[in-house]
Amino acid sequence: MSNKKGLIALSPLIVFIGLYLITSIIANDFYAVPISVAFLISSIYAVTISRGSTLSERIVTFSRGAGTENIMQMLWIFVLAGAFASTAREIGCIDSTVNLMLRILPGNMVLSGIFLATCIISLSIGTSVGTIVALVPIAAGLAQGTGTSISLMTAVVVGGAFFGDNLSFISDTTIAATSSQGCRMSDKFKANSFIAIPAAIVILILYTVMGLDISSPTDVSPANYIKILPYAAVLITAFMGFNVMTVLTIGIALTGIIGFADGSYNLYGWFSAMGKGVLDMSELIIITMLAGGLFEVIRSQGGIDYIIQKITRHIHGKRGAEFVIGSLVALADVCTANNTVAIITIGGIAKKISDAFGIDNRRTASILDTAACFMQGIIPYGAQILMAAGLARLNPIDILPYLYYPYVLGLVTVLSIIFRFPKKYA
Asked: How far apart are CA 234 and CA 240, in angstroms?
């Protein structure tokens, strides 16, 4: 593919970055251009400049990307998460859970305690989205109760969620990475742990130091243990390996039962709370569909193939090959906003590169998963950050400066490639 055609294929992504990021920086206000508007204009531009098909066919291509199986699953999760968050909030589940946490955790352990709990939960259930759905409302409530930044506390949960997404034996990213490279999950876990665990320890120490000045309020109301049940059920069923949509449905049903029993609302009030929660997620749903359609048009025009072609032209040695593998999966994640899809997209190419340069397949699987989780953890239009922002009622950009774990994970990955550790796999 020529440079001209490749740049044209990628130009919708450039338009999006320019329209959203650059104009927001110029205006010194990341609310100046809503991210949904930036995606809308970029999508219209992408469909307009596409070549080789009629307008109707281009719209079909866009619609196919907006309605893929992965996108539709995300939308279902958004809808159910919104309904659960709203119904739980209406009957006081969040307040009761937060009050319990404030009584259990000393104020100076709130940040480190939430991060450690999130890491353990996400490692156990293997889903960053499920972890975020369960813990962000609690974290946001804790932030208000302790006078901590809600953006910071939300980012603590997002970081911990990606720790488990990256390392868990049952996460989609682990399955995709090990399957594409032909290695065992346990071997990939061992190689990956030398990158993810040191990064988590650094962040745990950081949060411990940052939390020294935080103090719990002295007038904490008693926790209503009955109203903690919906969140407890969500965590327990997630631990048991239930599908995240089943988990959320159980949570919604419990909020209804408890709400009816204590008079928090009647049937119509329950329906109204669910409807409000779904509407709260409407912008996230629109953004997700527009992003899926936009990146499908870019892919169909050869944009991703162009990036791969350019990056793989000049590889020298194992370090160069590993940097290329990490860069490719990170770029694929930027273009798909889905770390599992990014790994699947690049997995075959990564296997060829690693075979050609004699890279251990366990090492390649580790780099694929880590680089994809790093990038997914910092893009404002990824499902996890959109979900966290929606539940905490924030702009996704508000969370980015506080995403310490993904940033450190990316840094440790780069250092791992440069200094060739762990030696056993490098």
From this structure: 10
Q: Which residue has the tokens 């040695």?
A: 317
Distant-in-sequence, close-in-space partners of 360: CB < 8 Å, separation ≥ 6: 191, 354, 425, 426
Range 284-309 average pLDDT = 85
What is the rounded distance in angstroms from the CA atom of residue 164 to the CA atom of residue 116?
11
Task: Give the position of tokens 């049937």.
Answer: 267
Quote the CA–CA distance of 215 and 145 in Å, as a whole number: 10
- What 3 state SS string does 277-324 have? HHHHCHHHHHHHHHHHHHHHHHHHCCHHHHHHHHHCCCCCHHHHHHHH
Cis preceding linkage at 422, omega within 30 = yes
What gap in Å lies between CA 346 and CA 372, rounded to an integer? 10
Angle at 419 (CA atoms; ends 418, 421), nearest 5 degrees: 115
Report yes or no: 327 and 73 within 8 Å, Cβ to Cβ.
no
> Helix-strand-coil percent breakdown of the chain, rounded to 5?
80, 0, 20
Both tokens of residue 347? Answer: 């997995």
- Which amino acid belongs to residue 117? A
**What DSSP assignment string belongs to 346-412?**
HHHHHHHHHHHTT--HHHHHHHHHHHHHHHHTT-TTSHHHHHHHHHHT--HHHHGGG-HHHHHHHHH
- Decide: residue 253, CB within 10 A, 0-12 exposed, 13-18 middle, 19+ buried: middle
**Under a CB-based contact definition with an 8 Å cutoff, are residues 111 and 217 in contact?**
no
Is 90 exceeded by the pLDDT of residue 385? yes
Q: Which two tokens stand for residue 167?
A: 């390392």
Backbone φ, ψ for residue 149 (5° rounding): -60, 130
Taking the complete model, does pTM exceed 0.85, yes or no?
A: no
Residue type, 258: I
Q: What is the pLDDT of residues 74-104, one digit of tens each?
A: 788 888 888 988 898 889 887 787 777 767 7
